[in-house]
Specification:
The protein is 39% helix and 17% strand. It is α/β, with parallel strands linked by helices. Helix 1 (14-24) packs across helix 7 and helix 5 (130-144) crosses helix 6 (149-166).
Length: 204
């Protein structure tokens, strides 16, 4: 099994690259979002959940992600996780995910936890200008997550930018490959797909 991690700032194109790469592989592939491993807070009100810093590493269940990746590597199935951005709640569907040849895992803090990082056979960091990331985030959060322009702007200033400066931009040092122009860089996706399909990128 080959496990590939894709990391980068919010709005850098991580999910776009993961989906494009999956489509170009001729090997069975599954795509996992780190966002699905956000901690759940059922006892909080919606207003309290909205004030949580979702851009800091502690917002995620790194241990659960690590255990799921280990299970897949052992050839065991896992239970699918999911997150509802409109309600700031976990909404796990409970479906079964079976082990497969290639696992793509993407998220802003995929390279944060040493245990998760150790399981990644190949690490990709997407490097995009922060202003471009902000514009993409505004469009996505209003269109897909029911946010207002004011809430996106406030969250960006209060948590997204500070956490990028403190953590996310430094993950580049762990990368095996740094990708410019985000997930829509078709040339690099084609090259990666060729390397993966041909077995030139191997698991540990």
């Amino acid at each position: 099994m080959l496990i590939i991690g894709i990391c980068g700032a919010s709005g850098s194109g991580k999910s776009t690259m993961a989906k494009a790469l999956c489509e170009r592989l001729n090997r069975p592939c599954i795509y996992i979002k780190q966002d699905s491993y956000y901690k759940d807070h059922p006892d909080m009100t919606f207003e309290e959940r909205a004030r949580i810093n979702y851009d800091e590493p502690d917002a995620f269940e790194h241990d659960a992600l690590r255990e799921d990746l280990l299970a897949l590597r052992r050839g065991e199935s896992i239970t699918e996780k999911e997150y509802d951005y409109t309600q700031h709640r976990r909404c796990d569907p409970g479906y079964t995910i079976e082990p497969t040849d290639v696992v793509l895992i993407e998220g802003i803090h995929v390279f944060y936890d040493p245990g998760v990082r150790e399981l990644l056979d190949f690490k990709i960091y997407i490097q995009v200008d922060p202003d471009v990331c902000l514009l993409r985030r505004v469009k996505r959060d209003i269109r897909d997550r029911g946010r207002s322009i004011e809430s996106v702007y406030r969250q960006y200033l209060d948590t997204v930018k500070p956490m990028y400066e403190k953590h996310i931009r430094n993950y580049v040092e762990y990368a095996d490959l740094i990708v410019a122009r985000g997930g829509k860089n078709a040339k690099i996706v084609d090259i990666l797909a060729h390397y993966i399909n041909s077995g030139m990128i191997e698991d540990k």
